[in-house]
Amino acid sequence: MSGATHTPAAAQTTTFGNAGALRIVMMVVILGLLLAAPFFLYPIFVMKLLCFALFAAAFNLLLGYTGFLSFGHATFFGGASYFTAYTVKEWGVSPEIGILIGVVGAAALGLVMGLIAIRRQGIYFAMITLALSQMFFFYCVQSGWTKGEDGIQSVPRGHLFGLIDLSNTTNMYYFVLAVFLIGVAIIYRFVNSPFGMILKSIRENEQRTVSLGYAVDRYKLGAFVMSAALAGLAGGLKSLVFGFATLTDVTWQMSGEVILMTLLGGIGTMIGPVVGAGIIVTLQNELATSDFPVTIITGLVFMACVLLFRRGLVGEFYASRLGRKLGFRPEQ
Amino acid sequence: MNKLIMTTALVAAGAAPAFAQVSDDVVKIGILNDQSGVYADFGGLSSYEAALMAVEDFGGTVLDMPVEVITADHQNKADIASNIARQWYDTEQVDSIMELTTSSVALAVQALSNEAGKVTITTGAATTELTGAQCAPNSFHWAYDTHALAVGTGGALVEQGGDSWFFLTADYAFGYSLEEQTSAFVTSQGGTVAGSVRHPLTNPDFSSFLLQAQASGAKVIGLANAGLDTQNAIKQAAEFGITQGGQQLAALLFTLSEVHGLGLEAAQGLSLTESFYWNRDEASAEFGNRFFERTGVMPNMVHAGTYSAVLSYLKAIEAAGTDEASAVSAKLKELPVDDVFAQGGTVGANGRLIKDVYLMQVKAPGESDIAWDYYNVLQTIPGAEAYLDPAESGCPLVQG
């Protein structure tokens, strides 16, 4: 956090009211928009967007608040989507149990990967996570239960708690929205807990945190597993939304995409990854019908973002004169 | 009174075609495939052009309603494809989705189209699952499948004298199943399999695998892989002088577009199976040249298959008098398929188009006298041999 000499909150009360109130207003507006979204946007598209937003937010938990750049998050996202799809389709478990299995599976994968990867930092950490996620990708390609490049198809959405029929799009939408909000609430709570503060202090100065008596490796592992589990939540949810789990979600490109989403939106902000995911998913969807190759456009967007908005869109807004006036503080 | 009823009935009967049931007053076909990734040449926007050609050749309207073709790039991602497909059905009044390169995409879109009660005709994907265990009443598989490729390259090549085989197999499910199916046809024709070696997916260096294949002394080296792996293996085999040493390369999934990409120098002597070759007869050459004028490339079996799929779909709508999915599907299964792509083709109850496929050999640079003249047709394999009998396909729709 910036060690500002004057407290921003006190300064803001005179001009625009305090930031806390503004945030609440913003949250209410966003919540209202999300509740109303299926009536004016395509519901499946919004559900997909929410899944990716949750995935990016989970990724940001690690990159933004702990400072670890993982290049293997597709493992948790895609792995969980396989676990959920498989258990729901083959074992016939209900959707909430299927998602739970996906989350637990992703957390277990996260524990294994985390135990190995957190011993190193920076580029080495990224390379270890990339290597392990490639191992998982090849496992998914080869093993029989994932059905190779065909993927697990025709996964039924089933009935939530045995009561609510999720094959109804409206029901499914509000289920996805609820899970998304719970996921984001967990991340918010996590980041603003004493645990989260220690993570930030590890990010800022690991040596000093050690000297204060914290076992930093445990905190890092905790954050890694948490991030993996939440990415798994998003993955499991996505497999139910679309009714399939395929190799796309475990490829290294997917790990890259989530980094792109987070960077584009703004690292270390709550809303940034959500905005970034929204932009990328919308681009992929809207540009699908253009004659111009989609990948080139997303590449250009990424370059423009890195060159022009180093803090990401939301981060730049927070740092701008208007953002500061409204009481937002840029990270770092 | 009786007379009145009669007249009313007659008027109603006579008027029926005029009130033909076409939903939303337009027949809309969506071409959904990879337009920016590894399969962009294999299908891509050229498939969209093929669909447009079919509509124009049909006359632009069916049952007096306009026919429209739209297209999108699914980027090889099943979720993007699924999203677009749903949106097309729900908000764009699309009646049928075709092409569907990549098996995960084809299976996903086929399943959701089945729920939505729409017709799909897959030309770009290879998996026999589409008309096997995961078959659907309104879904069709048009251009080729892994079974036909294995029969063509595996079975027919043995008849041509290639009776001992060594496989270079991509180390994942698709590679195994290609190897397994092809081996079965090789041995059933009296050939032998000397051995096989598995290479990782997207492998840049085939030298050690090719040396093993060379040392095996097998007459044919079967490439049970796809895309870039096949291309790399062929290029490196050319550098090793494998074909000059008397061994023959056989690719299991390779089309004219990839041969063009490699060039005849590297690809010469390669055996492969396709269900279409533009320079096979006069009609196909005429189609090929028209296609070339529009796209700048000659059609492979996916492009020609897409043309045929659109044309057959429109004919079926005309015959059914409606664009309602189950009526159109019934007509598609009933009518023979006769066009530039298929002659005397029939459609099985599982949705599989059964037509001849061809074993080809890539020409040497000296043999090819006009541009894109790449193949010698070695053998024609009748459809009934090339494709699984619908009753044995494992499709639940077929009474076994």
TrEMBL record, chain A:
Protein name in UniProt: Amino acid/amide ABC transporter membrane protein 2, HAAT family
- Listed GO CC annotations: plasma membrane
Keyword terms, alphabetized: Cell membrane, Membrane, Transmembrane, Transmembrane helix
Transmembrane regions: 20-42, 49-77, 97-116, 123-145, 172-191, 221-246, 258-280, 292-309
* Subcellular localization(s) per the UniProt record: Cell membrane
GO MF terms, alphabetically ordered: branched-chain amino acid transmembrane transporter activity
Its domain of life reads: Bacteria
The protein's topology relative to the membrane is:
Multi-pass membrane protein
UniProtKB/TrEMBL annotation, chain B:
Entry annotated with the keyword DNA-binding: no
* InterPro entries, A to Z: BCAA_transport, Leu-bd, Peripla_BP_I
Q: Which Pfam families match?
A: Peripla_BP_6
The entry's keywords? Amino-acid transport, Signal, Transport
Ranges where the Leucine-binding protein domain occurs:
27-364
Q: Which GO terms describe its biological process?
A: amino acid transport
* First and last residue of the signal peptide: 1-20
The text of the family note is: Belongs to the leucine-binding protein family.
PANTHER family per UniProt: LEUCINE-SPECIFIC-BINDING PROTEIN, PERIPLASMIC BINDING PROTEIN OF ABC TRANSPORTER FOR NATURAL AMINO ACIDS
The name under which this protein is listed is Amino acid/amide ABC transporter substrate-binding protein, HAAT family
Native organism: Loktanella fryxellensis
Q: What is the lineage of its organism?
A: Bacteria, Pseudomonadati, Pseudomonadota, Alphaproteobacteria, Rhodobacterales
